[in-house]
Write a structure and sequence with these properties.
Blueprint lengths: L1 E10 L2 E11 L4 E5 L6 H8 L7 E6 L2 E2 L4 H5 L2 E4 L11 H11 L6 H11 L15 H13 L5 E5 L7 H14 L4 E5 L3 H7 L2 E6 L2 E6 L1 H8 L5 E6 L2 H9 L4 E11 L2 E8 L3 E2 L1 H10 L3 E7 L4 H9 L3 H14 L4 E2 L13 E3 L6 E3 L11 H9 L5
Parallel strand pairs: 3-8, 3-9, 6-7, 7-8, 14-16
Antiparallel strand pairs: 1-2, 1-4, 4-5, 9-10, 11-13, 11-15, 12-13, 17-18
Helix pairs in contact: 11-12
């Protein structure tokens, strides 16, 4: 839907944007992040056709923003950081004015009413904009971006200046809009970006330093990735079971956190996802998992690592992980490996542990029964 290639922008001799390239798929919500002065707003202004680039191309659904500006801009709805509102107009009058500016072909009243319902301002349509709260003004700005049903929404700091309740409302609204539109969201509220966006592009000093999901960036940048688990069960047996999981490197005992509840720190092979296997083995023994989480980096940690003065080492780490390209695989179960999990029980008479592991053997099916099962569709 959006294709950006080698975008460059100079202001005099200042390199504001330097060779930026990325793409956004249809229906994707992309978080576009960067510190102040990184080139983020300049890039977004170029995407909307507000300013031109020095070199490079921007295509919106196949239309070049410079060669075919009318066709490209018809597919864009833009909410700048300061919504372009005429405060002395009513909400309905303002949206009607925007409708005429965009030369929409959709039935006017029905379309404006539908947009107002979607952003939940239908109850203030006849009020003057300057009398609305900050949250409602932001919604009106979002409504003007939706006029004409554009396929692409570009939202620059849509929650700036809002209170926590209003932020949550706008966040939920963006999620809903993402079901019908391709969205680029710029925000300094990183928790909001992580909650809403499918993918992140981080820009610093005019260059893209990361382009991936938050989960993948965490895995690629974390130097000490561990799981912390609390299990209610016999401590030594729990430890043995955890140590026996394929891909497990280290199991550290963190102590008894509640009566009969023990915490362990787990380090595993980063190319294996051991979570399901842990759950399967613990639950099969009727033990209880009371908490299970990773010590992964937050989006704030990632952002600071990639945009601070020591960002070079973090960027090298990302580049190295891309070259390795090792996919995360599921840790194999014992039966998948053709092995039998070792099970020990204590003999009450001798007090010694005995291995009672046995391979599961299927009974032989005679020819007559096999024929009947085939006729019944494989059931007896």
């Amino acid at each position: 839907m959006i294709e950006v290639k080698n975008l460059t922008k100079y202001y005099g001799d200042k390199h504001a944007v330097d060779g930026v390239s990325f793409s956004v798929k249809q229906g994707e919500i992309l978080g576009f992040l960067g510190p102040n002065g990184a080139g983020k707003s300049t890039t977004m202004n170029i995407l909307t056709g507000y300013i031109s680039s020095t070199s490079g191309t921007v295509e919106i659904d196949g239309y070049d923003i410079l060669d075919n500006p009318i066709e490209a801009k018809q597919k864009i709805g833009y909410l700048p950081e300061l919504p372009p509102l005429y405060l002395d107009m009513t909400v309905q009058g303002y949206l009607s004015f925007v409708y005429d500016l965009k030369k929409c072909k959709i039935p006017k009243k029905q379309h404006i009413d539908d947009v107002c319902r979607r952003v939940r301002i239908d109850n203030v349509q006849h009020r003057i904009i300057k009398n609305l709260s900050k949250g409602y003004r932001q919604r009106v700005g979002l409504a003007q971006a939706l006029i004409g049903n554009p396929e692409v929404l570009i939202l620059d700091e849509p929650t700036v200046g809002l209170d926590p309740k209003q932020i949550i409302e706008i966040r939920d609204l963006i999620k809903v809009l993402g079901e019908r539109h391709t969205v680029i969201l710029s925000s300094h509220i990183l928790s909001e970006v992580q909650a809403v966006c499918d993918r992140l592009v981080i820009i610093n000093s005019g260059k893209i330093v990361a382009d991936d999901t938050a989960e993948n960036l965490t895995r690629r940048l974390s130097k000490d990735f561990r799981y912390i688990i609390r299990v209610e069960g016999p401590m030594e047996e729990v430890r043995k079971v955890l140590e026996g999981i394929p891909g497990m490197k280290e199991v550290l005992f963190n102590g008894e956190k509640e009566p009969g509840v023990y915490e362990f720190s787990l380090e595993s092979d980063p190319t294996l996802d051991i979570r399901r296997e842990i759950f399967k083995r613990v639950v099969s023994r009727s033990w209880t998992i009371l908490s299970f989480h990773s010590t992964e980096m937050t989006l704030e940690d990632i952002f600071l690592m990639l945009t601070s003065g020591d960002s070079a080492s973090a960027i090298k780490t990302l580049e190295a992980s891309e070259e390795d390209g090792a996919p995360v695989e599921e840790a194999p179960s014992p039966d998948e490996k053709g092995e039998v999990e070792k099970i020990e029980v204590v003999n009450p008479e001798t007090g010694a542990a005995e291995d009672v592991s046995q391979p599961l053997e299927m009974p032989e099916i005679d020819g007559e029964r096999k024929q009947k099962m085939n006729e019944d569709g494989g059931e007896e």
